[in-house]
Design a protein that fits this description.
The strands form 4 sheets. The chain has a 4-stranded parallel sheet. A 4-stranded antiparallel sheet has the order 5-8-6-7. Strands 10-9-13-14 form a 4-stranded antiparallel sheet. Strand 13 and strand 14 form a beta hairpin. With 356 residues, the chain is α+β, with helices and mostly antiparallel strands. 35% of the residues lie in helices and 27% in strands.
Length: 356
C-alpha cells in the first residue's frame, strides 16, 4: 500500500533546506486545493493525503465525469489521522510530489515510518542534483550533439563575474539555484541596483547564482521520464505546456504523435528521439543509487539566425520530481481528455484543476 502526498511547495522547500520550514500561504492553498490529484495515478487501495476528505471526493468525482473514467478505489485521509488508521501498518511505500527534508519531517511527525523515506544522505544528494548547476552540466553535454541545439548556463559566485558575462554575451538571465516556477528568475539589466541586490542576496544565501545567455523563446515543452526501481531511466512522453510570468498554467492533452507533429514545424522528429536517448543515458549515470521515480526536463524552441531560423534549448531545467506533464500524460489517453487542455486556475479564492 502506497501513501501519496501532493507537496507543490517542494521547490521552495529545497531552497530553504530546513526540516522545520513552513510553506508560504500560496503553497498551502495549492496543496489544500489539489491534494486529491494523486488519485489520478494511485493504485487501488492506496492512500492519498488531503486537507478535506469530503472536498477531495467531490473534486475527484467532477474530474471523473469529464474524463469519462473512474479512478481506482483510493482512500483519502488527513495527514494527522494517518497514525490513527488501522491501515497504517500496511503502508510499505511513500510517493510524494518531490522529496525534501521538510516533507520528510511532516511525514515522520504524522507517524509514517522513517525507513520508508530517503535517507538524509540521499536527500542531500537529491538536492544537489536539483540545483540548476546540474541542469547546466546536462545542457553543456547536449548542446554539443547537434548544431541546432543552443544555450549556455554558468554558475557564478560574485557580481563581477555576472558583469563580465553580460559584457560577453549581451542579454543574460539570472536564476536562483533552487526556486519555484515563475520565481527566482530575473533578466539582468546593467545598472539596475534592485536586481544587483537580489543577485547578491541569492549568492549569499545559496552559494552561487546561475547566469544564462538570453534566448528568444518561441514555445515551451518538456520531456517526462521515470527512474525504475533498478535505476533504469525510461522516457515517458512529451509535455506541451503554457506559462504566464514564468508560472505554470496548463498542458495540452493529446497523443504523442500529435505533440510531435506540432514540434516538427521547428525540429526534426529524429532529434527528439536523440535527445530522449541521451537524457536517459546521462541521467541514469547521474542519478545512480540516489533517485527512483518521475522527473522532467524543461526545454524550449527558440529563434536563431541560422538553419531554418529555429533552435532548441534541450535542457532549460531538470525537475527532479513529478511534474504537471506527468499528470497530463496519465490522463491524455482517456476519452474525455482528447483535444482538451489541462489547466490550473485560481477561481473563487482557490486553485481549480480544469479540463476544457
Amino acid at each position: 500500500m502506497t501513501l501519496h502526498i501532493f507537496n507543490p511547495e517542494h521547490d521552495i522547500a529545497l531552497a530553504a533546506n530546513s526540516p522545520f520550514w513552513t510553506s508560504p500561504k500560496a503553497g498551502i492553498m495549492l496543496r489544500r486545493s489539489l491534494g486529491w490529484l494523486p488519485a489520478l495515478w494511485a493504485k487501488d487501495g492506496d492512500i492519498v493525503v488531503v486537507s478535506d476528505v469530503s472536498e477531495a471526493h467531490s473534486e475527484q468525482e467532477a474530474v471523473e465525469s469529464i474524463l469519462r473514467r473512474r479512478c481506482v478505489g483510493v482512500h483519502f485521509c488527513i495527514l494527522s489521522d494517518v497514525i490513527k488508521k488501522p491501515f497504517r501498518k500496511n503502508i510499505d511505500n511513500v510517493d510524494v510530489w518531490g522529496w525534501d527534508c521538510a516533507i520528510v519531517n511532516q511525514l515522520v511527525r504524522a507517524g509514517v515510518p522513517r525507513e520508508l523515506m530517503p535517507s538524509d544522505e540521499v536527500l542531500k544528494r537529491q538536492r544537489e542534483l536539483s540545483d540548476r548547476a546540474t541542469s547546466a552540466k546536462l545542457l553543456d553535454y547536449l548542446v554539443h550533439l547537434s548544431d541546432i541545439f543552443c544555450g549556455e548556463a554558468i554558475a557564478v559566485h560574485n557580481i563581477n563575474n555576472i558583469e563580465i558575462l553580460a559584457e560577453s554575451w549581451g542579454s543574460i538571465v539570472l536564476k536562483s539555484p533552487w526556486s519555484s516556477s515563475g520565481r527566482g528568475v530575473r533578466q539582468w539589466i546593467g545598472g539596475n541596483q534592485a536586481t544587483k541586490r537580489w543577485a547578491e542576496k541569492v549568492i549569499e544565501s545559496q552559494g552561487h547564482i546561475m547566469v544564462e545567455r538570453y534566448l528568444d523563446k518561441v514555445m515551451d515543452f518538456a520531456m517526462e521520464f521515470n527512474v525504475d526501481d533498478d535505476g533504469t531511466v525510461r522516457y515517458q512522453g512529451l509535455s506541451l505546456f503554457s506559462t504566464s510570468g514564468g508560472a505554470y498554467t496548463g498542458n495540452m492533452l493529446a497523443p504523442e504523435e500529435d505533440k510531435r507533429n506540432i514540434l516538427s514545424a521547428y525540429i526534426a522528429d529524429e532529434l527528439l528521439d536523440d535527445i530522449a536517448c541521451e537524457v536517459c543515458q546521462w541521467m541514469q549515470h547521474a542519478l545512480s543509487g540516489y533517485y527512483i521515480g518521475p522527473f522532467g526536463i524543461d526545454m524550449m524552441i527558440v529563434r536563431t539566425n541560422s538553419g531554418n531560423g529555429f533552435g532548441i534549448n534541450p535542457c532549460v531545467e531538470i525537475n527532479l520530481r513529478r511534474t504537471m506533464g506527468h499528470v497530463a500524460l496519465c490522463i491524455s489517453d482517456t476519452e474525455g481528455a482528447r483535444g482538451k487542455t489541462m489547466n490550473v486556475v485560481f477561481r473563487n479564492n482557490k486553485h481549480c484543476f480544469c479540463i476544457e
